[in-house]
Every structure is written in structure tokens, then in C-alpha cells.
Specification:
By secondary structure, this protein is an alpha+beta fold. It is built from nine helices and five strands.
Amino acid sequence: MTDAVPDAVPDAVTDAVTDGAAREHAPTTPLSERIEAILLIVDEPIGLVALAAAVGSPVPAVRQTLETLVDDYDGRGSGPRRGFELREVGGGWRLFVREDHDDLVAEFIGGQAPARLSQAALETLAVIAYKQPVTRSQVASIRAVNVDSVVRTLLARGLITELFADAETGAINYGTSDALLQHLGINSLDELPPISPLLDDGADGFDEGTIR
């Protein structure tokens, strides 16, 4: 007579295999390192849920690790205070240069900046000037290309600035700076030439939200 195999045995085997597969595919690097890797490449604040999904960890664990990183960067951990800080702004998290070093960084960037802007940078700058406040995604939609690197270049040159973060999405809205007005030799944006005569149909690429 053959002994019956308990129903629990197959279930136990299945659970063991599943748990083993989960451990096999689990991230092997520390959570703090994975979070730092993502924070280093984002141009806009990243929400807690999106960050947790990116690093493959539960939201509570990511939140706790973020708080630990804030303390670490601020010198409240085992090491010294860093030249950058981690802040929660606009419903998301992002790394920033500490205010103490703003002048140092601005001087360095100014010394590294090329003398001339590329055509892509000029076109992006024009969109921001006439469309501000505007987000990177809106500029990219108008130009039909990725503008991440170009926006970073314009920020580094001090020609545009971050105005505010959208309360719902956390997306940064950009506008032109006083430095641009100085380069153009004008006192305000009202002195920019009308954009309509420069467009094929007077409206292509810009909607009624333009300043002129």
C-alpha cells in the first residue's frame, strides 16, 4: 500500500523554490548606495514611491534610508558634513550643493563655460524665454527632442534659473535670468521681439501661453 503524500509537501517545495528565486534576484548592493546612484542622475525631485520602485525596496525602508542619508550628509552621522545636501522639495528628493558653496561653484562653472552656445542651446533658450515658466518636459515637447543636457548647460551658464517646483508633480519650472537680459542688452522680457513673425504660421510650437 502506497503512503499518501501530504498536501503540505508540494506547497512547501514550491515556497522554497519561490523564496530561493527571490533571494537570487534580490539586489546585493546596500540600499543607501542604490538610492545615491539614482539621486545623482535625476534632474528633478524624485518622489518616494518612484524612488522605491527604482531601487526595488519597500517605501518605509527607502524613507528611513533617506533620513539616514540626510543626517550623514549634514555631519550628524559617523563622518564629516558634505559639500552637498539631500532635501525634500516639491514632493520629491534631490541632491543640492550647499548654499555655503554657491559662489565657489558659480565661479568654477563660469570659468568652464564655453564662449558660444550651440544651436540646440539657443533654440531651447528661446523656448524658455517666450514660454516661461516652463518645465523641461514642455520644452522637450515643443522641440521634439530631449533637452536635459541643454537645460543643464543653460543653468550652468546662468542664463536660466529654477523658478519653482510644481506642487503636484514636483517638476521644476524654468525661466530666464537677469544675466540673459544683460547679455541681450534689454531691461525686461517685454523688450523681446514678437515671436509670431519668426514662425511659419505664426503659432507653430507655441500656444497662447507665450508672453508675446
